[in-house]
Design goal:
The protein is built from 3 helices and 7 strands, in the order ααβββββββα. By secondary structure, the chain is α+β, with helices and mostly antiparallel strands. The strands form 2 sheets. The chain has a 4-stranded antiparallel sheet with strand order 1-2-7-6, with no helix packed on it. Strands 3-4-5 form a 3-stranded antiparallel sheet, with no helix packed on it. Strand 3 and strand 4 form a beta hairpin. The N and C termini lie far apart (96 Å).
């Protein structure tokens, strides 16, 4: 059962959230693959970790790409083994995971250990975008601050 949402009423009362609505549309439209399984954990105030279970994949089989708020993880086995399997339960099929990241989130590193690919992320808000306190002035204070300054000089006769 697919449900469609009309975001048009929200466009009338929001400014600059076009990217958010486009993200909601693309998330709903694309098919979501649950393989391989992954976790997303918050490891600090502004740090996160994505852990993907990639048993059987080596560093050479994995490709991580980060470009403008999109993190893509692709796994592709180099060559299939020539072994004759009686049962094959460990999946080695290719996969691709895409993660939409918020503004100012960047990848700090990735590590493959014991079949887990861990990707560390950090959110770094630029200083000019952080909240700042704005002083409130009264009208009298504003007029005084805009009045021209007089230079005092000794009277010459």
């Amino acid at each position: 059962m697919a449900t469609t949402y009309d975001y048009a009423p929200l466009f009338r009362s929001t400014v600059g959230f076009d990217r958010l609505f486009n993200l909601l549309e693309t998330q709903r439209a694309r098919s979501i693959s649950d393989w391989p399984p992954y976790d997303i954990a918050k490891t600090g105030d502004d740090s996160y970790r994505i852990s993907i279970a990639v048993a059987g994949f080596t560093r050479d089989d994995l490709d991580i790409t980060f470009q403008t708020n999109l993190l893509t993880v692709v796994g592709k086995k180099q060559e299939p083994s020539s072994d004759a399997y009686l049962h094959r339960g460990i999946a080695g099929r290719p996969f691709e995971h895409r993660f939409e990241l918020a503004d100012h989130v960047r990848v700090t590193g990735a590590d493959l250990n014991n079949g887990l690919l861990e990707i560390d992320l950090v959110r770094e808000i630029p200083e000019e975008m952080k909240p700042r306190k704005i002083a409130i002035e009264s009208a009298a204070t504003a007029e005084r601050s805009q009045a021209p300054m007089q230079i005092e000089a000794s009277n010459a006769a």
